[in-house]
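Incident log, structure service

09:12 report received: a user says their structure output differs between two submissions of the same chain.
09:20 pulled the input from the user's history:
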Amino acid sequence: MLEKRITIGTDPEFFLKKNGEYVSSQSAKIQGTKHEPVTLKNGGTIQRDNVAVEFATMPAVDGNDFVAKVKSCLIDTHNMLPEGHEMVVEPSATFDAVHLTDPEAQEFGCDPDFDAYTVSMNEKPWCGDSTFRSCGAHIHVGCLDDNGIAIPGLEFLLEFSGKINAVKAMDLFHGTISTKLDNSEASIRRRELYGKAGCHRATPYGVEYRVLSNYWMKSPQLVMLMDGLTQDAMLLVADNKLQKLLDLVGEDELQETINTGNVAAAEKIISNYVLPNISSTTMDFYEMCAENLPTYKSIKEEWGI
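09:34 re-ran on a clean worker, output below:
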């Protein structure tokens, strides 16, 4: 049993709209770049990422702290937008070419990411539609305390094999649940290029899970769900229960379910292997989000900003 829980953070991307039309972060004069992000007033950083606006939260120590840090970044980012602009949570979109003329709008990614199953670098995605763009919301899982020392029971997050297991555990929990909840046409199109099962980057403090779209930024309830799933997934690894479940599910089946967006297959895995292994609190948020997701409104309304 863990003596203390993980730390958690995220770096979600959002599209911008003005008068109902997608516009670029360059035209909206968003500050910060990948190489020089700008510090937000209440903590975290902001930057332009292709046409999207991206912020990064400071590490949070529990679910409520995670929600608070996401909300503070949302507020600070919202306050920096020009009049008439709004952030929207959409996994992918097609832009009018007039908004893609800035050189930054033609830059795609920087550092490579990796596949936890092949243990190799992922190929850089290519899309024949030059006007197509997508948004993710990665989860950063950390195991270090305030003194930079590994939290007892979470030392595996500093080891190569432990990072790989953490990603596979998150595929089993986050990946399947998000396949069920995040099944819009925009999400399916994003998944053709980004967010394949096992996608991650190793970090000095743990791992960055790069599978999910930005859909879970729609409400504080979804953020709490992702926090609970992350803690539950790390407990699964720490208690040496992961491999047994993966053997029952089948790693090939798990990958195919996520990569193809197979909702029926995801529901089967969730029912048989996920729900029996998550906490009652996480279960409550899962049921709440599954029921409320179709009715979530705008960022401003759901987050009260």
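09:41 both user submissions now match this output. Likely a transient worker issue. Closing.
09:42 reviewer note: Residues 160-181 form the longest helix (22 residues). The first strand starts at residue 7 and ends at 10.
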